[in-house]
Structure formats: C-alpha cells, structure tokens
Amino acid sequence: MNKVVSELKKVMEDAFESAGFDRSFGMISLSNRPDLAEYQCNGAMAAAKKYGVKPIDVATKALEVIKEDADKCRMFDKIEAVMPGFINITLSPSYLSEYVDEMASKADFGVDKNGSGKTVVIDYGGANVAKPLHVGHLRSAVIGESIKRICRFYGDKVIGDVHLGDWGLQMGLVITELKHRQPDLVYFDESFEGEYPSEAPFTISELEEIYPCASGKSKTDEEYKAEALQATFDLQHGRRGYRALWKHIMAVSVADLKKNYGNLKVDFDLWLGESDADPEIPSMVENLKKSGLAYLSDGALVVDVAREDDKKEMPPCMILKSDGAALYETTDLATILMRERDYKPDEILYITDKRQELHFERVFRCAKKAGIASEKTKLSWIGFGTMNGKDGKPFKTRDGGVMRLEDLIRQISDAVYDKMSDRDMTEEEARNISFKVGLAALKYGDLSNQASKDYVFDLDRFASFEGNTGPYIQYTVVRINSILSKAGSDLSGAKIISTGSESEKALLLTLARLNENLAGVYEEKAPHRLCAYMYDLANAFNRFYHDNRIISEENEATKNSWLKLIKLTADVLTCCLDLLGVEVPERM
After folding, report:
1. Which of 196, 231, 263 finishes a domain?
2. How far is CA 349 from CA 90, 158, 160, 369, 514, in A?
3. CA-to-CA distance for 375 and 6, rounded, in angstroms?
4. Per-residue model confidence (pLDDT) at position 423
C-alpha cells in the first residue's frame, strides 16, 4: 500500500503542476500545529520566490485544482490555504476508515517495502570470552537485535554476528592464572604429545572468578603481566597446549553466553570472534605493504587515513604494533575482508559504545582506501550512550561493582512480580509473566531512548504499567485481547467504518501512519521512533476505549467495526513489540 503521506504528495504535486508551478513544490509534512491540521504543504513559500508571486496566491491556485476533482476531495475533511501561504490538510474519517480497513486485509499491514532486500551484516553484542555479561553489554545486544528484526521485516537478508573478544590479553591472563593454580596440568607440559582431555579443567563459575583475579594481579605485578603477555603471544602463535586450553575456555564460556543472551531474547546467526579473523591477517598485512599504503612509523606499521577536508586531526590507522602484535584495527579490517568474501554484503553495520567513534572512522577509511571493502559496500556505525544510575553516573551495584546482566534481569523481573502479588494466578504463572514483562520493561526502557544519548535506568518507572513503558504497551494488547475474547464475534465479514467520533478518528489516523512511521524507523535504524509510535497508538486506543462501550454497542455493524479496529491495533502493537524483541503475555 502507498503511504498516506505519499498519496497526499501525489495529489499536491499534480495540483501544483496543473496550476503552472513545478511539481516538486508539492511537498507534504506532518503539521507542526496538530490543533489546526494533520498534514501541511509549505511548498507555496518556495514557489513564490521562484515565480515572483505571493505565496498565498500559489497555494490558492493549487487548491482550486484539487477542488475541481471530486474523487480527490474525498480524501479531505478540510483543506485550506492560510496566510502567508501554508496549505493545511485534515483527512476525512471515511478515507481513513477505508485505508485502515485495507491495512487489516494485507500481509504485514500493507507496509510498503520497496527498495529493501539488501544483504546486511550487523556486528553487535561484542562480549568477551571468559567474562560474564554485565550491564555494559545490554545496549549493544538489545539495539542490535531490534535493528536486525526491523531490517528482516523489510525483507533484508540480515546476518547477525556477536563478534566475540576471544583472542586478546584476557586469554593470556586466564592461562597464566591457571598455570599458577594448577601447574601440573598437562596443557603446560611442552613435551606432551598425546591427546588432551575432552573435559575442561574448570567450570563457568571458576572461569568467571579466574579472570578478574588475574586481571587484578596484572595491574600490580609487572612480572605477572609480562607472563600473561607472553602466554597471549604463545597462544596466538600456535602453542599446542595453550590452544587446547583456549578451546576449553571457548566451549565453556560460549555455552554460558548463549544461555544469557537467550534469556534476553537475543539471537546471533554467527558466533565468530577475533580468532576467526586471525588467519587472514598475514596476507592482508603483506598486501598493505606491497600496495605502498602501509609504512613504518616509530616501529609500528600504519596507514594514513587523513583527508584534506578533515576539520580535526585524524591519526593513522595502526596495523601492527612495534613488536609485531595485531590490534583491534587489524582484526576489524581482517573481519571486513572475511565478510566481503563470504557474504558480499551491501552494508556492514557496527553497534558499539559511542566512545569508539574514532576507531571505526579510521577502520572504515582504511578499508575503503585499501580495497578491503568494495566500493558498493556501505560501512556504518551506530554509537550508543551510557546507561546511568539515578546519580547520573554509569549504573553500578550497591557496593559499586559492575552488575551482571542476569542479576539486572532478575531484579527487574522481581520488581514486576511484586506488583502482581495480588493477581489470581499460580506462583509459576506469575513468575513466567513477570519475566516477560520485566524484559519488556528493560528493553523498552532502553530502546525508547535515542541510541546515541545517555539515559537513566529507573527501575520503578520502567516497570510501571502506566506511562511510556514496555509494560503499558503489553497491557494495552492484553486488554484488547480480553475484549475480543469476551465479545466472541466472527469478524470475517466485518468492515471498518467511521462513526465520526473524535477518539475513533484519532485511532484511525494513528494506525494509518504506521507505514510512514515504520519507513522512518527502517531508514534511520531508529528503534526509539518505533517506541514513540507504539506509545501514541496505545494512547489512542485507550482514549477510544474509554469513550466507547464496545461490547455493549447495539448497532451490530458499528460493534464489529470497532472490534475489527481494535484487533488491528493489537496486531500492530504485537508486531511492533516483536520488532523490539518483546513478547506479549496472555494476561497481566
């Protein structure tokens, strides 16, 4: 289906052209005065300058053309030219009801998906092996998951990659600490030539205790740190026992990561990491040298990526450190090379902390300059802000530590459970529902904020069943489903018709704007815009619900029209929640 704004634009462009002006002036936008109009056209202002006439005369001539066409006039309840030359538009309830009725009969509500169908790799998650997920991993996971779902809704082939940190110093630290604790393990015997044990010499709980212990020691003991650096080097250069230990670390850690990401309803297509890109690095470095792009600077291998139009200093992209070690830039470039070869993507999108902006700017420039990324591949990055506590500082536990993500999920689920303690349901059902509602509170609370902005995590506000929250949206759907269940009507032959009520029209108008709203969400990769639309729609429904007695309505056609209208509302909200990675419980 065409977007409402597209249909209006076509009418206005034709009118400007028929009135003797360039059709490009028939631009349409949402009215900035919704109390006066729903849409507006400001093109007469620009046209007046080009043609040397008054703006109000341009607008009046365009309107005269429209008013001569009875079919086009059906779209409008009111259309008028106002000084100095604005055209204010209010749509007719009958046009909106016909449009929304057609939406109800179409797959995916008739959303226009023209121009989609790209292959997109989304790099999000970014968890480090051997470390538990904590609140710092939340934003990348939920933002990336939502963008992945939105792109797939529009028909893109999307490959989500967790891109694990599995090849750096943390591996050397874990190996070193294990060697200090259990020096007799066969992995540390360089003369051993047999098969290594199939079972890991540690559990996930032990592994998660080993890393912070080792990290703490390395900050105060230079000898210990040097040993860990050497262990990292030996691992990366193929020491057999260390590679076997690394495989155990990976198996135990990734299984736990999958469980915890699964609890968050976040799913990856690829579980690759820095280690997977490592084999590509030698040949990539050699090619950079041969091309003349890479050169030595203070012993390090670098590529210049500065441009003449740069307004601030742009440091070179460092490929290898002076000791020959690879960096994040190196593995990211090698990963782009792999993705180009394996998936031939139209776009590679990274979702990370906004403090990594300079890193990705250098990597992208180097990838394009060296031909590692093809000319057609769009390299994109979304940087997100920090989740802060009520004190305005990064969110911490009460004792000042970094909170584990599973503890945060449990905390918000418990808060929801406490709100539901008076509900008539079993303990198991209440826990199940509170988990789904808690996830909605957590995800919506994050995604309703523009990704680049910091925000305050407010458990009480996020878990509220009122206001701009995930539970409020869920509860709206549950309420609609309850009404439909009580009505028990067969809506197969029902048609959405307008009765002329103000709240009904507001609901129709909000539903009719789904197409254009989703288009903006998709184009801008902006889940917060989707949240804003859902909140508007939920509010529009609740006003309509309070103004009309739906089930007791005596006119059968009106009653079935309203039931079909609210069913469509529930379906749209459920679909939008799914695009955020949120489920709707059967009851609340």
Report:
1. 263
2. 39, 10, 10, 18, 25
3. 32
4. 82
Helix axes 427-447, 138-153, angle to 10 degrees: 90
d(CA 139, CA 397): 17
Q: Which residues pair with 473 in a beta bridge?
A: none
- Helix H, strand E, coil C: the string for 57-69 is HHHHHHHHHHHCC
SS3 171: helix
Q: Is 212 inside a domain boundary? A: yes
Q: How far apart are CA 319 and CA 331, in angstroms?
A: 9
Question: Which run of H or of E encompasses 388?
Answer: strand 387-388
Of residues 329, 347, 305, 341, the one with CA closest to residue 123: 347
* Residue 135, domain member (yes or no): no
Q: What is the pLDDT of residue 466?
A: 94
Between the alpha carbon of residue 496 and those of residues 90, 103, 205, 573, the distances in Å are 20, 10, 57, 18
Q: Read out DSSP for 208-254?
A: HHHHHHHHHHHHH-HHHHHHHHHHHHHHHTT-HHHHHHHHHHHHHHH
Rounded Cα–Cα distance for residues 123 and 144 (Å): 8
**Tokens found for residue 19:** 């009135």
Q: How many CB atoms lie within 10 A of CB 93?
A: 19
Q: What is the DSSP letter of 186?
A: G
Residues 173 and 259 in one domain: yes
Q: Which residues contact 571 (CB under 8 A, 6 or more apart)?
A: 109
How far apart are alpha carbons 251 and 243 in whole angstroms?
Answer: 12
Residues 10 and 41: their CA atoms lie apart, in Å, by 12
Q: At what angle do helices 55-67 and 43-51 cross, to 10 degrees?
A: 120
Owning domain of residue 16: 4-91
Q: Provide the edge-to-edge strand list for the sheet that holds 317-320.
A: 294-297, 300-303, 317-320
Put simply, whether the predicted model's pTM sits higher than 0.85 gets the answer yes
> Which SS3 state, helix, strand or coil, does residue 199 take?
coil
State the pLDDT at residue 531. Answer: 98
Is residue 194 a part of any domain in this protein?
yes
Tell me the CA distances in angstroms from 226 to 217, 219, 337, one per residue in order.
11, 11, 32
Q: Would residue 503 count as lying in a domain? A: no
* Count of domains for the chain: 2
Burial 343-371 (b: 16+ CB within 10 A, else e): bebbbbbbbbebeeeebbbbbbbbbbbbe
Considering 263, 287, 316, which residue would you say is the last residue of a domain?
263
Q: Answer positive or negative: Cα dihedral of 369, 294, 120, 349.
A: negative
Q: What is the pLDDT of residue 457?
A: 93
The mean pLDDT values, 10 residues at a time, for the chain of 588 residues are 95 96 96 93 96 96 94 94 96 97 96 89 94 93 98 97 94 97 96 95 94 95 96 94 97 95 96 96 97 96 96 96 91 98 98 97 98 97 95 82 90 92 87 96 97 94 95 98 94 94 97 97 98 98 96 95 98 98 95
How far, in Å, CA of 16 to CA of 6, rounded?
A: 15
At residue 152's C-alpha, the angle toward residues 150 and 154, to 5°, is 75
DSSP output for 499-537: ---HHHHHHHHHHHTHHHHHHHHHHHT-HHHHHHHHHHH
We report the CATH number of the domain holding residue 8 as 3.30.1360.70
